[in-house]
Write a structure and sequence with these properties.
With 331 residues, the protein is α+β, with helices and mostly antiparallel strands. Helix content is 30%, strand content 22%. It has 9 helices and 16 strands. The strands form 4 sheets. Strands 1, 2, 3, 4, 5, 7, 14 and 16 form an 8-stranded mixed sheet that branches. The structure holds fe (ii) ion.
């Protein structure tokens, strides 16, 4: 199912050799039985997702692929040649929804539509109009961040699937492992202090306007950058998005101190430059799976507006048990 496996740090690379055969038909058939509509091919968090997952697990290609992926035991996986290139949107997104349901519980990205599968591609500029927008809506670069950092329960994982790679020099995907950030910070006295401060001090993350109730409504979520570990073998969980924190501090001056500003600036320097990173232009038909609590991700700038990825976020707990609006974030 997975061949040519190699590793760089905490990231595993492999080629998928999936014999989809009639299994794509089986997936579509099962989903057609459970979904009354495919919600514009974006699907939604299904109310009976636990049972649906059991049914999908009987589809051989899905079961084998999931086993191979979980067997990699990694913070990030890049799987080439998934075998979904050129498929109609409903079949492709059905396969991606089914795959992510094998790994956890896909969450809704869009509050209005409830879509699980989110198109990462440039939106027409007139739709953006100077609001505090989010990375998935625009061309250009994305600073290193974790997804849903400004909500109470950031999803544990997400996938990106490349429908159309950018046909320009840019659009590289970037990943930085939390452990490498930790090590970079431990190298200096200043860095060690910054790590301690960011592990103990809650910082305000401002919710981007597109998710907040109204454009003039300022919402913030307060949490430390390095939270307690929730998995054996890990040092901490991480949430990070520098632009959202800076806007959060502007909105909550009571939490703003020179020490915190300095620690955040150092963390940003390490995230953007100091720590070792994976950087690659992912080809069409590649699946990237990332641990959103232990890795930062970003992308280099691009200009090709045909670049198109699908992003699905995956929670460890069923949607019915999740709290707060974290099922509705897009970034
Ligand atoms: Fe993101």
């Amino acid at each position: 199912m997975l061949t040519s496996i190699s590793r760089i740090g905490k990231i595993a690379f492999a080629k998928a050799a999936i014999d989809w055969n009639t299994d794509l038909d089986s997936i579509l058939e099962i989903l057609l039985k459970h979904f009354d509509s495919f919600n514009g091919n974006g699907f939604y968090a299904h109310p009976n997702e636990v049972q649906l997952r059991t049914e999908l697990a009987r589809v051989p290609a899905l079961a084998h692929f999931t086993e191979g992926l979980l067997g990699l035991r990694t913070h990030g996986a890049v799987i080439y040649n998934l075998g979904l290139a050129g498929l109609p949107e409903d079949r492709r997104n059905a396969a991606l929804y089914a795959l992510t349901l094998m790994l956890g519980y896909p969450t809704s990205t869009d509050q209005r539509t409830g879509r699980v599968a989110w198109d990462v591609r440039a939106r027409p500029i007139e739709e953006i109009d100077g609001r505090f927008t989010t990375f998935s809506e625009r061309i250009g670069s994305a600073d290193m961040h974790t997804d849903s950092s400004f909500y109470p329960m950031p999803e544990e994982q997400f996938i990106l699937y490349v429908v159309n790679a950018a046909r320009c020099d840019g659009g590289h995907s970037l990943l930085v492992d939390g452990e490498d950030i930790f090590e970079a910070l431990q190298r200096t006295e200043e860095g060690r202090k910054a790590f301690d401060l960011l592990s103990t001090t809650p910082v305000p993350f401002r919710v981007p306007a597109i998710y907040a109730a109204g454009d003039n409504n300022v919402e913030v979520h307060v949490a430390p950058v390095f939270g307690p570990s929730r998995r054996p073998g890990t040092r901490f969980t991480m949430r990070w998005r520098y632009d959202s924190i800076k806007k959060g501090l502007d909105a909550r001056p009571d939490l703003d101190t020179p020490e915190l500003r300095a620690a955040l600036a150092l963390m940003n320097e390490v995230a953007e430059h100091g720590a070792v990173r994976f950087k690659d232009q992912l080809p069409t038909d590649t699946l990237m799976l990332a641990d959103n609590h232990h890795m930062l991700h970003g992308r280099t700038t691009y200009t090709d507006e045909r670049r198109h990825l699908i992003r699905i976020r995956i929670s460890d707990v069923p949607n019915a048990e999740r709290i707060g609006p974290s099922g509705v974030v897009r970034d």
